[in-house]
Amino acid sequence: MKMLGWILITLATIAVLVSCSLARCCSPLTSPRHRYWTNHLYNERELFEQAAAQHSRFLIVQRIKKLFGFIPGNEGVQHIRIPSCHDWRDISVPSFLCMGNDMQGHYSFLGDRLDEDNEESKSGSIELKP
C-alpha cells in the first residue's frame, strides 16, 4: 500500500513535467516572446489593480461625503451633515446583488442609496465656525 502511494506521486510528478515541457515545445511563441507576454500580463494585472483601487477609493470618498457632508482627513471642514434615520436604514441593508434597472449592482454597504437632493434637505446639519 505504501509503495502504491509513492508510485502515484512519481507518476503525477512525471506527468506534470512532461506536460510543461510539451507545452513549451509546442508553443508558437519563442522564448523572448514568451517573456514579453509574461511581463505584459503581469504589468496589465498590476495596473488594473491600481486603477481598481483608485476607482473604488474615489467612489467611497464621494459616498461618504454625500452621507456626512465632508471628506475624511479634510482639515477645513466648515459644514457637517447629520444623516437621517432613513439614511442609516438605507445603508444598513446589504446590497451586493443588482437592484433596480441599471444592472450594475453595488459593491459596498453605502451603495448609491443616498439621494442627490437629500444631502441637506431632510436631515439636520451643523455649521462649524472657527
TrEMBL record:
Keywords: Ion channel, Ion transport, Membrane, Signal, Transmembrane, Transmembrane helix, Transport
Membrane topology classification: Multi-pass membrane protein
Location (main, coarse): membrane
Single biological process term from Gene Ontology: ATP export
Entry's localization field: Membrane
GO molecular function terms attached to this record: monoatomic cation channel activity
Keyword Transmembrane listed: yes
InterPro entries (alphabetical): CALHM
Family: Belongs to the CALHM family.
Full protein name: Uncharacterized protein
Organism field: Eschrichtius robustus (California gray whale)
